[in-house]
């Protein structure tokens, strides 16, 4: 069975590769006499931010599902019979645990910032626990407001320090009861937003991606 799946996967990848080659060839040949190299094929910024978002979300979900959840339940068995003796907690550095998914996400964004200036990403929220997640720029404030209301991504150009960015905010929703419980009872949340009680499926914040672009 596994072999069949593998064969199908290989075939699918093969087909995609053929499709991409065809697309590139078509574009390369469409220059009516002029030579057009494949490196000139641009991908629209709204597509690029979608691709980045897909990877970020996939990694965060995989970390939650395959690391954090396995600390309390291993292959369906409760923790006492599990093998990993650790806990995902906010104070993971003090307790010898592992970071919460939101912290892991932030740590990743900090590492990315050390390695590239190509683009930046992070979490933001109107009801932020961590100060660095507060919507700052005019775009961030407007985008977060829109996303809170519509539950849909918000994308636009913005300028920061003379550089133009294509920026996008994707909703981060309460997909599990744990999101709601932990945030609603967090001491910082209780102090700052005593009247804000998240319920399931609420927009709790957003994932922001900033892509520098040349507007010539
Ligand atoms: C066990 C507690 C806990 C759980 C469960 C949890 N969070 Fe958080 N969340 C936090 C903490 C603590 C932070 C601040 C992390 C940091 O310092 O960067 C945070 C940060 C965030 C932020 C960024 C804004 C802010 O508050 O700083 C968003 C958005 C967010 N969480 C959404 C979610 C969603 C959606 C879920 C469920 C899929 C979830 N959280 C589950 C504790 C939790």
Automatic annotation (TrEMBL):
Domain Tll0287-like as annotated: residue spans: 52-212
Keywords, comma-separated and alphabetical: Signal
Domain of life: Bacteria
Source species: Hyella patelloides LEGE 07179
Signal peptide, first to last residue: 1-28
Record InterPro entries: Tll0287-like_dom
Protein name, as recorded: Tll0287-like domain-containing protein
């Amino acid at each position: 069975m596994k072999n069949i799946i593998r064969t199908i996967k290989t075939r699918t990848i093969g087909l995609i590769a053929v499709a991409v080659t065809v697309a590139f060839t078509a574009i390369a040949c469409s220059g009516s006499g002029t030579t057009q190299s494949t490196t000139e094929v641009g991908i629209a910024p709204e597509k690029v931010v979608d691709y980045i978002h897909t990877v970020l979300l996939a990694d965060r979900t995989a970390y939650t599902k395959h690391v954090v959840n396995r600390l309390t339940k291993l292959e369906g068995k409760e923790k006492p019979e599990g093998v990993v003796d650790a806990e995902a907690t906010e104070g993971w550095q003090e307790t010898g645990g592992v970071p919460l998914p939101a912290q892991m996400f932030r740590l990743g964004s900090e590492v990315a910032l050390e390695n590239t200036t190509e683009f930046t990403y992070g979490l933001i929220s109107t009801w932020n626990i961590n100060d660095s997640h507060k919507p700052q720029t005019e775009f961030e404030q407007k985008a977060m407001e829109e996303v809170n209301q519509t539950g849909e991504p918000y994308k636009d150009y913005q300028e920061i320090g003379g550089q133009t960015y294509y920026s996008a905010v994707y909703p981060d929703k309460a997909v599990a009861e744990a999101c709601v419980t932990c945030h609603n009872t967090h001491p910082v949340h209780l102090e700052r937003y005593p009247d804000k009680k998240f319920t399931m499926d609420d927009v709790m914040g957003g994932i922001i991606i900033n892509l520098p672009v040349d507007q010539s």
